[in-house]
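Final report, closing paragraph on structural work. Over the funding period we assembled a curated collection of sequence-structure pairs, and we close with a single example.
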Amino acid sequence: MADVNLLSAADDLTTTRVRRQGCLRAAGITTLILLAAADVLIAGADGKTLWPVLLLLSLGLAAVLRPGARRPAWLTPQLRAAVPAGASLALTAVATTTERVRTLGPGEVAVLLCLLMIAVRTCSPRWAVLCAVLTGAATVVVPLRFHDVIAREDALLFALPLALLTGVSAGLGGYLRSLDHRRAVAVAETRRSERLAMAADLHDFVAHHVTGILVQTQMARMMAATEPDRLDPVLAGIEHAATQALDSMRVTVGILRDGPEEAARLQPDENRPMGDLTTLAELVDGFAGPAGPRAELHGDASMPRNLPHEVQAAAYRVVQEALTNVRRHAADATDVTVALAHAGGTLRVTVRDNGRGGVPLPYAARGGGFGIIGLTERVTALGGTLHTGPRAAHGWEVVAVLPAVRRTD
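Its predicted structure, as stored:
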């Protein structure tokens, strides 16, 4: 229920953010259209030719306001910035020779500044520089249309404000570009972490079941000649392990197809084939099976039931990987003990076997050490420790010490 509430709160926050962005965009569009209308009114009141102003504003507004979903592939950011800027420079050049098109309004300047910001934010580095220079120059030289007035006044009064606005727009575009880059890096890192987590899940669960299938298949082949009447439980175990492996792969492949965004919407037990302490007894019982070694689970009566889910999942994985390694590297083991102990705010997970290293499995099925590596990363990420090594007499042990309290950092 807590996860559902968190997801609901996240959805509400996202909806609020989208609405706020929509309101800001609508306000910006309205302001830009009103400023463009002011340019037309200014040109009409002064008796200037309207079509150059209308053409320039139409190009600029189309480049700024056309939604990305409806924008054709050929309408690249550099083209969107270059065409209106080139039209503005051409109008400035013509306006220096004839007064019929000598006009200037806030709409044209606003459009050029918006295009400058878009070019700096979205173009490739080389095109961003070229488009910034072209659009910035078109903005700064606009006052040259009134060169005779500028000649009688201080030129800085006309050029300095536009230069400052150009610098602010370019700086804002660069800042948004850096935010986009950091967001892209964060998304890529998140996806990479998700892929690694799913790879670890696939290894932990599928390798465990497939190893069981292999061991039980070998046992079935031996029993076929000597004890054929006892084959049915072994074959049932093979069927169950194969079903579990296929289910694990189905879940993982489904997440890969849907992507991390869809996976984030799922509940933890739907997201990946997770395990916890409540399913640990089933794991241990299923490991023994009709032909496996005797496996026992010793719990701790003082263990709280509300341990953090990530700690329970890590404990489950420790036991799962340890049991898989018993099948791979100590097939002659007759006793396997799994013990859980809770004391001093920690959960201690111990898995011991009495094998002497009998390995009837093919070399390719013995694993490449990735399980222990992933297990160590999982345990240390929670602030715990993992020890693996031989026992004093014979056999092997895996000991993991996990913090049994939820971390607040």
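The chain has 13 helices and five strands. The radius of gyration is 35 Å. We thank the funder for supporting this effort.
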